[in-house]
Amino acid sequence: MRRSLRVVCRDSLAATPTAAVAKKRPVKDVKVEVKEEATAVTKPRSSSSKRIKKEPIPSPEKEGTTPEPPALASKKASKKELEKAAQLDTYLSFIHTRREQTGDSNKLVGAHVSGASGLENAVFNAAKIGARAFAFFTRSQRTWTCKPLTPDTIAAFHAAMKRFGYAPGDVVPHGSYLLNCGSPDAGVLQKSRDGLLDEVRRCEALGLSLYNFHPGATKNEISVDECLDLIAESIEQTLQQTTGVTILVENMSNQGSTIGGPFTHLRGIIDRVSEEHRHRVGVCLDTCHAFAAGWDLRDDA
């Protein structure tokens, strides 16, 4: 490639008027160079330049050497476990300090945290930020079908709750966004009711006492009263098949056809639940939704 570039440069010089006299000589030089290059390329290789075939390096097993001890093989894994244990100790110290600072206040400030890669991680993530209360999803919030909780997952969650000092009432799991327990579509309504029951049962298995969900929407196909009836029926069916978990109906932002913008919607849902189970129905007040719906909560008025 380098010699080709030199040829192009010399041809360019030969084309200029000032280099007309010397035109033939540079070309001759070029021919010589090209010939020499060709000779060099076609020159046969000496016997000493033959490639030597590399033999594969035998594995330790073939050589009869002693394999790596299990302790050394798992060194990296052990290091990660130690690092995680140290992190959890830090979180534990942090949440204890936060509880000492806030004392016996009944205002438990927290956040919605991730429970990805193991629901016990929701507990760890809450402690990490010093949250005295937290919310999380007990399953995927964007798919209808999910794998059931395993005994190991349940045990790990219980252990984390105990270690970090969270009570059942400090946690408010949030329902799937797919649920519409007041849907005018029979298929969607049934899937929503199945999902509601499954999520409340998950709360039971995890030892939690609260569960929060978005009530539903009319889809502009049925009246508000008809939608309230369906939502109350959905709650009633779930309460009949579960124990110990209170279902919280969340107020909504009054957007589209959603139910729960006016507080009268929430009252209407609760009143429609039977007296037998009504004590297990409550309200989750979302302040952002309230402001969006036109309720200014900044003063007593």
Output the keywords.
301 residues, mainly alpha, TIM Barrel, three-stranded parallel sheet, two-stranded parallel sheet, 11 helices, 48% helix, 6% strand, disordered N terminus, Xyl_isomerase-like_sf, DNA damage, Xylose isomerase-like TIM barrel domain-containing protein, DNA binding
- Kindly report the average pLDDT value: 83
Radius of gyration: 37 Å
- Please list the strands of the largest sheet in the order they lie side by side: 3-4-5
Our count of helices gives 11
**Level-1 CATH class name of the domain at 85-292:** Alpha Beta
Mind telling me the CATH superfamily name of the domain at 85-292?
Divalent-metal-dependent TIM barrel enzymes
Keywords: DNA damage, DNA repair, Hydrolase, Metal-binding, Zinc
Cofactor: Zn(2+)
Organism: Aphanomyces astaci
GO biological process, one term: base-excision repair
